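Suppose you are handed a protein chain with no further information: no name, no annotation, nothing but its sequence. What can you learn? This example shows the usual starting point.
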Amino acid sequence: MISLKIDEVKPFMAKLLANTLFDNFILREMEIQTFTGFNVSGHFNEGFFTKEELEERGAEKAVLWSEVKGIAFSIIRGSKTPLSMKIVFQLPRSLTDQLVESLGGRYRAEDVGGLYMNIRFENNELRIITGTSMKTFVMDKTLDVEWDDWVRKYLESKEIYYEEI
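A reasonable first move is to predict its three-dimensional structure. Written in structure tokens, the prediction is:
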């Protein structure tokens, strides 16, 4: 787990809300506090969709950031900065499996609950905190280290500059 402070908040928010940077990440949770609180659970409601829409969607039953970012943008847009914001992203299963496979058999993909990025804005500071979830107890922290490195490289490749706290 690492904590990264993003110094350039406005450019990051532009990339988050108006770019495709995080579109393929799974949204697990979103909370935005403005004049009132807005909460999105990230839970996929199959009952909302027709049978055809579900078939079109295939096996992917997660809520992606691309499906919610327009709503987030409309909540945040305006002349006032939100009081706080929390967004929890999960790396999609296919990318999680690739990362686990790159570790040469140290882990089984089915034992990984998820790889997470928590984006938090409060007190005019923006931070990204990483996290891993395992379905079984492991002493080995190699996956944590690799996930943290992956996040650093991803942010750097997208020209998002940070200070590690």
